[in-house]
Amino acid sequence: MVFEHEIPKGSRLYFGKSARAKRALENKVCEILEARDFEEIVTPNFSYSQHQSIENQRKLIKFSDEINEQVSLRADSTLDVVRIISKRLGRATDNKKWFYVQPVFSYPSNEEYQIGCEWIGHDNIADIMNLTTDILKALEVEPILQISNINIPKLIASELNIDINILKNGEMASLFKLKCDWLDKLIKVKSIEDLQNIVNIVPTSIKKEVEKLLTRAKEVNYSNMIIAPLYYGSLKYYNGIYYRVISDNLTVCKGGMYSSEGSCSLGFALYTDSLLKILED
Model confidence over 47-57: pLDDT tens digits? Predict the structure, then answer.
């Protein structure tokens, strides 16, 4: 039995103090983004293209429109923002830097508020990572910044002829069983110094991507940082260096580089509730 005052599991309710804290957080981050020449956009809650963003299709909340085309509630903002800017707004704007404050939805009734931005046509991931860390510093928090490169696990799977799912699932024990010296050392990498020490012993097929990760990590101005070259994230569109910000069991932010509409772009999403929890603590 569902009572009138109940809300679905996974949905959000903010009131009084929590609503004020949420608004204050959003306003502060928006001010930082506007000062960096990002403009705001609010995209539709409904989308035709969410299947291109989300690895697990079962997480999408789907239904049909009036002509029986499949529609999903927005589960991710990135690709929709880029498509709307490049295709629908077209010549109405030449701005390439956009931010949004809006929720995403996943099955069965989960909603998650995000503060995100997209930098269309820009390819230096260090710039967006430094923007992220500048926001964290302004909020006076210092969670862990984890930097990875999606191409490294993909190339390792090809080099060693192993199932990519071993890396996707983080099955480190299975990797150690391969008794591969350079791989064992790569698994243990946590710092820029660790990565520097192994860059010349990895196979040629992997070395270029390891060097890219090393170069960009060195450009980030943040003290609480770890390097995770074998981490494999869940979003489909990241195709190079990407990162997440974590604090204990909370994911605070995800960001990275991706290709859309023929150009390289960058973006991140800050998870509002995770940030509110950290600030409250």
Answer: 888 777 777 78
